[in-house]
Design goal:
mainly beta, Porin
Length: 283
Amino acid sequence: MKRVLLFMAAVMLFNVSVRAQEVVNEGVDAVVEAAAVEADVAPQSSRFLPTSRRVDRNVDNVKFVFKGEVMLGLTASYGTLDVSDSDLMLLFDDINLNVRRTAVMPFVAYSYRDNRAVGLRFGYEFLQGDLGNIALDLGSGAELSFGLSDINLRNESYSWSAFHRNYIGLDRRGIIGAILETELLVKTGTTTFSMGSGESRDYSVSKNFAAKLNINPGVAVYVFPQVCVTVTVGIGGLTYNQIRQQDLYGVETGRRDHSALKFKLNIADIQIGVVAHLWNKKK
C-alpha cells in the first residue's frame, strides 16, 4: 500500500511539472509574437542613426542623363591681357605687359546608368607673357625705386584625366541639372623663363608634373534636345606638384616637391563647355 501511494505521488508531481513547463513555453511564445508584431507596426523613423537601411531621398526621380548615352564634350578658352599705361595706381610707371592664354579640353563619357557617367578628358594649355618694362617709384621721401624690363614667360602643358559625374535633375522636364564631378588628373608641362637682352639674357627651364584629385560641382542646361551647356568650378582636393629647375644646358639646378589638401572656391578654375548627348539607338 505504501508503494502505491508513493507511485501516485510521483505521477502527480510529474504532471504538475509538465504543465508548468507548457505554461512557461506559451508565455515565451506570446512575448515573442507580440514583439514581432510591434516591430512590424513601429514606424521606420523611430530608429536613430546609425541605421542599417539606405535612406532613399528620391534624387534620381528626374532623369537628366539616360543609361546608354555617349557624350562628346569640348571646353575651350582664350584670353588676353594688354596693359600699356604710363600712370597706373600712382605707383607703377611705363608699364608694357602682354599675356595670352589658350586652353582646349575635349572629352568623351558614357552613361552606365541613369544620371551616372564616367569619362576621359584630354587637355592642352598654352600661356605666354611678355613684360617689356615696368618701373616703381614711391617718391623722393621713400627713396625706393626699381625697374624691370625684357622678361618673358612661356608655359606649355598637357593633361589627362578620368572623371565620374553624378547628375541631379532640378526640374520635372529634365532641362536643368546639377553636376557633381570627381576627377583624377595627371598634368605635365614645361615652363621657360628668360630675362634680359642680348648676350646677357638669362634662361631657366622647369619641368612640371602634377597629380590631382579634384571635386568640380556645376550646373548643366539643355539648350537643344541633345546639346547642353555646362559650367563647373573647382573647389579643391588633393594635389601633388613636382618642379625640376634646369639651366640652358639641361643641368638640374633645383627641385621642389609639394603636396596639399585644400578645399576652397577657385574662381580661376571655371570651365564652360558644350556637350552633345548621343542617345542609345536601341531606345
